[in-house]
Amino acid sequence: MIRTRGLTKDFATGRKTKVHAVRGISLDIEPGELVAVLGPNGAGKTTTMRMLTTLIQPTAGTAVVAGHDVVEEPQRVRRRIGYVGQGNGAAHTQRVGDELRVQGRIYGLDRREAKRRADELLEALDLAELGERKVTDLSGGQQRRLDVAIGLVHAPELLFLDEPSTGLDPQNRANLWSHIARMRAELGMTIVLTTHYLDEADSMAERVVVVDHGEVIADDSPDQLKAKLAGDRLLATGDGPALAAIAAELPGARDLAVRPGGIELRVSDGPAALPELITAAAGSVRTAEVRRPTLDDVFLALTGRNLRDA
Ligand SMILES: Nc1ncnc2c1ncn2[C@@H]1O[C@H](COP(=O)(O)OP(=O)(O)OP(=O)(O)O)[C@@H](O)[C@H]1O
Ligand SMILES: [Mg+2]
Description:
There is one protein chain. By secondary structure, the chain is α/β, with parallel strands linked by helices. It contains eleven helices and 14 strands. It has a six-stranded mixed β-sheet with strand order 6-7-8-3-9-10, sandwiched between helices. A hairpin with a 2-residue loop joins strand 4 and strand 5. The longest helix is centred in the middle third of the chain and has 18 residues. The protein is elongated, with a radius of gyration of 24 Å. The protein binds adenosine-5'-triphosphate and magnesium ion. Magnesium ion (MG) binds next to helix 1. The site of magnesium ion has 4 residues, from helix 1.
């Protein structure tokens, strides 16, 4: 569905200065995949999406999207995709329902189908009661939901979502993701999204691509990334030195820290190591727990920075 080779974008910022926003990204995304692109502010996520959706031209490299080259055949690419940009939005005095129906018609749906899709989306994204409202009168989160509805109205086979859930309250985030999951199941859509909510990426995506400074620095399933890069942590309280001696022998034990009241370490398999530690250290252990890694731990391990701080 997507194939890029050495995709690169430089922006001129002065007569002699430029920003290397994207530095040679090569990616293959298969039909039906849901891929989350993660990275700190300025990593190059939006720039990459804008190249893939034909809004800007690459400086170098190639991209084939839905079977067409983005530079040679941008119109054909556009017809096959949906795009919800970061913070762009409908900003005029149309009414919400009309806006959605018109967008559907632009994408070639007939009148009845456009109305059906618009109604379905208004319902799914909790906008049904706002159908007669003017677009400019919506709150930030309501506008964002309308942006997403517009990107979905023609049920594209390939959907790009740039931070679709930013600015939504928890209830509406959940609604959005369940609607996307349902459309994906029904239509077999391919979805590429960015988000700064790592828990969303973890639960929604079976593949995570981490971008930093315009380059891909990791590309795997959330579980693999967590297992490879972060590992489980084991925390125990009790007699620290005695616990440490036992913990050091656990499979894959590393980063062992000993404190007066206990220990902390990384192990390859936390749920297996926990009972082993408790059994071996029976007299010395007071409490013990396993902490499974999060994608934030992965990001920290990859870049030395926290995704949010970064
Ligand atoms: N039109 C432009 N002109 C100059 N520099 C740009 C332009 N667009 C983006 N950049 C720069 O390119 C880099 C990548 O920006 P991009 O918007 O792709 O980041 P991002 O990963 O989407 O970040 P965020 O998480 O903040 O959305 C940044 O340093 C940004 O300042
Ligand atoms: Mg961005």
